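dumping this here before i forget
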Amino acid sequence: MSLIIKTQANGLHQHETKAISKIREAFSVEDEMRKISPWYGYAGYTLVDPISKKEGEFDLILVTNSVLIIIELKDWNGKSIKSANGNWYMDERDMGVSPVSLTRQKQFILVNKLKGLKDKFKGNPGFVPRIYFFVVMCGKVNFSNLPDDEQKHVISLDKFLKFANKNSFNKEFKPHPDAQHLYKDFDLIDQIFTQKSTPPKRIIVQKYKQDDELLSHPKNLYTEYEATSTISRSDKAIIRQWMFSNFHELSIQSPKMRAELLNHERVISAEFKQSTHLYNTALVPLIMPEEDQITQQYNELVEYRQSHLRFNDFITTICPNLNEEDKLNLIQILLSKFSEMHNLGISHGDINSHCIWISPQKDVAISHFLTSDSKNITNNIRDFQPDLVFIADGQKSKIANVQAFKKDAYMLAVIAWHLWLNIRLTPKALNNICVNSDHWLADLVRKAINLEIEDAVQFLREFNTKRPVQAVEFIANISCLNEYITSEKLNRLYPEDDEIYEDDERDIILYRSGDLCVKEWSDVHVNEFSSSDILKYQHFFERIKEANSQNLFYLPSIERFGISSKSRSLFLVNKLVEGITVDQIETTKESRLFLAANLIEAIIHLHKLGLPIGRIDHQSVLFNLDDNSFIFNDIIDIKEYLDYESAYYPSYIDNPTNEQCQNYAIMRLVCEILGFEIGNDSLEFKWVSDAVNIELKESEYPLGDLNRLLESIETEQIHGDTPTLRIPVPDKFPELKIFADNKRVYVALEKGRNANDVVVKMQGIGGSIQFILDPNTKTIRFVTGVRESDVVPHYVIDQAMLEINVALDIRHSVGRPEYAELSEFLFKIDEFSTAINDVLQEQANDQDESADVSNNLELSEDYKADQQLFTQENQLPVEHSSKSRDDNLSDDIQKLAALNIDTKKLWKAILETETEALPYIVLSQPLHLVDSKIYIARYEDDNDVLDKFPKDSLISLIYKTIDFNGEDREFRVGDIDIQNSLAGELRVKGVKHADKIKVGEVLYLRTKADKSSFLKRKNALEQILRRQSDIPNLVEYFEPNSEIRPTHYDITVTDKDFERYDQHNEQGEVIVSLNNLQREAFRKLINYGPVSILQGPPGTGKTEFIAAFVHFLFEKQNVNNVLMVSQSHEAVNTAAERIRKHSHRLNTPLEIVRFSNRENAVSNNLKDVFSDSIISTHRNLFLTEMEDRVLSLSQSIGVDRDYLACALFLKVHLFGHLSRMWISTESEDNQLISKAEWNNLSTKLIERLKDYSKELHTSLLGWNSRQISDRENQIWEMLDETFEVQGKAANNAKALVQIAFDYDQLIDSPNANYETYLSKTRQFICGTCVGIGHHSIDIANQSFDWVIIDESARSISSELAIAMQSAKRILLVGDHKQLPPLYSPEHAKALGRKLGFTKNRIEANLKSDFERLFNSPYGKAVQGKLLVQYRMAPAIGEMVSACFYDKELVTGVIEPLGKPYQEKMVRVVPNIYQHCSVQELRSTVTWVDTSEKFSDGVGTTFFNKHEARKIIGLLEKIHADEELLKELKERSKPNEPPIGIICMYGEQKRYLRKQFNSKAWNEDFRSLVKIDTVDSYQGKENRIIILSVTRNSPDNKIGFMNMPNRINVALSRAMDRLVIFGASRLWSMPKHQESPLGEVLNYIKEYSSDRTRYQYIADRKNEFKLNANIKTKTSRGISHE
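structure:
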């Protein structure tokens, strides 16, 4: 044969196979071109470009004796093809991107492949063979209208076959004589296709690319593959590849019958649209092809829901977490789906594991309706259906002649039983069904298997009948109150001295007994208590106990409380307090406002505590004006107090609630404190009196809370303290007034011309003033400018160093201007003095740096180019890859001591600047168009930016820019589809200006709910600052100098308790156990609080610790609820899974809810407790049971059961379903049905009505959907007449079905408050720090026994506040020596202005609250430390301990280097590096010097080509060591590469990735390497870490590298080996030797005598060259790339 074609399996379509056969036949001729060797062809191969890494899938490549020809085969049939905007259109149908363009890209790939062999060619040495390409049309279509540049590459199959002729071939390709010896290189070219790394061509259908095989039909009729969109990885589908040649029925070879078969599922699923319960259940083909497109081997695209798992996958991954009740609920939902199908007259015919899909939310989907039948349709494929079934042969014979519905019931029983036993359903299992159990479900399953159940309707009915209903009966025991009951008489315990108060009915009395106040409630008979009485009193005592434990300043100290059985009375005893009443207050305006605000905050806090409150009037509150305090001397009451005659009762409200009464009384007291009558206007307190009047006029829900009143007081406080200064200026300047912009006059500072002068510019609303300041004498020398301006431009705010609350009245001076008043005012402000000092310090630093550079470097041409880097140091940076990190911190940053800012001031500043903190992304790739409506915006960030938003948020993507006037401008890019977006990939709808958005741009996310995503953070912090948190003085615990005495809880934890958390191997040996330091920390944390803190350095097992701690709280401390949050989803998932594992293993019942706004953020093992899963399950169960529940009430409301059933059908399945489907017709995104289809939908629904009422069915025949919807009232009347039901009975029935319908609509709507219910009723609640604050969860109005915040050192105050506001006890877990909190650049600058520190102080001052607490006197008393690390090899761990943890960190890892060892419960470093071929890995820690060349600056970030080359060189060495690679791969976990490259700068990451991707690694090696920035690496680890320090700039500055946190994180990610690439000349400089990397370098050099542990690899020739350059100053300086 003169043409040999090699084919990759599964790589070709049927039409391609036919065309290739014709080409083989035509080109298999003997002639001069083929006389020495046959030609070769390669069909169905995929090649990967060694440079760009792009894939090309080749239909056919012909290798002739002189050229290569790429052939793209298209079997298109139509009238004509046109080209427009890069796409081809056949008869106006979009066929996608031009095949010519795509094939040209494949030509480039093949050229690059051949270039790699250029030096090996023998036929024409030194030359790469020419490559031609054609798009060959196999069908009938006119392509003459294509542009010339495309048309020359398009040819019909018939014309192409003529190239087999020598003359035609030579005329077309004109081969050079020297090139006609390609046969000599056939073997070489063959290697391109036969090497292992060449994968088969993957199928692409409608932009979906084939992935892994999912399913193969037992008779090979079709194979199914998972498929991923080529545009967005979030889009999935199934490719079903049909092999019609394998069918026995010959009629299937007819295109018409194939079309009937492929359309059958769509026809069946269309029937589902008439059912509320089913319309979203079927998974069916997405596109119906034309008959002539369905070839012998046809690829069909089928819907795939990523949220659902096939039955066997569900059994394996989710089912083990389900309890018996969960499984029964799921079986019930499954049966209800098929019951509804059978009700519609539809059978499935092939129920098996392949067609049942279940989501963790217990939502059931059904696929593979190929074998279905329906009484309402004509079944044209009945002859094919026996071949299509999956049922095993043994089962097939048993149910071969069974009626379809009964067959479905049989297989449903099999499915249900396998689900109940948690067993996968396999052909073997089907042939060996054994139901040996006395459980009621087993009886039902046996009945169905014995073919005694007719259909799924009967199956579900009997299931519901047999399923036991659990009756819950609770009887409270009086022993619950034993600790509170005394047998002593109250008057003997506390004899009465004076009566203070007695109510009219004489059942409550308040009296003095010595220095105590006693409140007594009479007529309390313990022996007559009911269960509800016991619970009421128990709750009352627990609330008092809780309030007393918090030492609330506004409640008197409670000495005792309880019940005296002999006196038959309830009593409360507290210290007697003295003070004045509200009518005696005489004090300042500020003090009155302070008292009023505190009074409101106190009552709000008491409401949150749930403390029962009684009488509030002028006698209830006593004030002390010496310290502006107050105390409630009589407010606690077990009964509601309503005194209708009291002035403090809101008589204007009808039947007010107890809380409304209390709020009115407090509001009246506030008016009395401020000195005006309630309801009157006040000139002195206008904001407050206005708020009171608004509250009094509120009609919807008056006095629902007091927040409006509190905000008015705070507004009054703000507007009362802005001073006005008069500034005299010369006549040449205009007179004007400058007002504070929301209390902000912006102050910019810069160095003056004279050495010690500072130029000050102050700008607010109205204008600006600029003057020269002498900081030595603290005087203003002269004014240089006054300018009018109505607004404050954005650039002014951006350049300001601080904000001052002042108004300036600028007037012409009389005589010489004096500025003493202004200068004295400014220098009294600490923040102003600090900012002045920083400006002067910067000036001194710049002079030092300039001298340093000039002393060390020749100002050569190269160096002048490097000078550009200097100017970039003065800009506030945006480090895109790792979220805005300031790299322009001076090297003297450590000399600028952190300001001693008190926490309350810091939190208030965060509160006031929170609106600056819009979440944002940095675009990492150009916006990518998915289709005409959707773009993909990709970003790189470890944290999920969408986590900050509720799942129902409408989020806009915003682009900000500055116009030519320097003003801020922004425009909306588009709206984000939150449900279909992923971490790192946003789906954006309605995109505008896509061409203006470039890679690297910052895009902000803002909700249409007016920034609600961060308002919740603001509100949480506000609540804490107002003392409304469960721990009212919470902010005081975080003060740097806090000396609060911790509460000691006296809790015993024994060693046996700890041993319960040991983990054992198969031999029973303990392999994981809490070590002694962990146990010590455990005991301390649980015993001291209420705020406790745990430091968990890298690899110290904090997740295992948290899991044991939480389990102990539930099992031994009997806590009611625990809230656990963390920064990342990954940390939440890991900890929650570990806690759940302990609970399962130790048989501790634990109800969990995992909150998240998207399912893909929740791990598989938690998806059953994902909030949406729980809610969905509840909804599905309700739909399943709704009819039975409603019909069970027919007798009690006095109507016939048939009438009620018909009424329910009308409401839910007729009117309700038509209404829901009509809404769908209006939806662009979720259109389930067209308007024409909707109008005809009523026909099928009316047909179903026949089962409920034949008379009503007859009356409605012929009505369309619009008529049904418009005449709903008339149809209800027809129903009443048909069943002769009238009056009250009819109204009750309609009200009942309306309630059922409304409940169905409400369950999964945002208004259902179901998530609030879950957060209040579940024991263990978990989510991310920000995500848990979503309004639907309502954390703010709840109370948790413990709140545990993991990764808390990375959280800003407002993120911590969300969880902390509701905590009785708090455990903060983190490590302040790792990554600090992440502030957006705008937020950081705004905080700097607010607090008065410059950019040089930002990192020093914006430390985490974790660190402030940890280092305070209080923190030292309550802190625990985990100090044994199990991650880093000894040499790495000891270095990290010495450089970052004061040598406290102990190593629990050994590296025996192949020698025997005795240690247990340690990690062992594998002995795979010592003798490998890679020098850098033979030592545990290696520093590779890269001093030879400077780094390059890009904006405010850096990259280093020289360092990147060296790192790629190291990777090449590792790649070449096959034994090492094998060992690394065997020890790798899925999705955890063993080699991590950490870059200190984002630009270096981008550059390294580009260089790495340009190399021809095999795919296995690519999967072993991860490249990222340090800010994306906390919490992660790799066996080998390669650190790219990057920075080596000629100015010798080190920027943020002087901060130890990031360096610590970078080094401590390494498990086995650490290789540092850095310029040692920079870190060896005297001024940098005490920097973090300076200390690391010194440590390595100091201990490098032990080469197994540390080595330093210097580039000696470059070191010599460097020294020569510096000393002689004659060379061009250090070379700069």
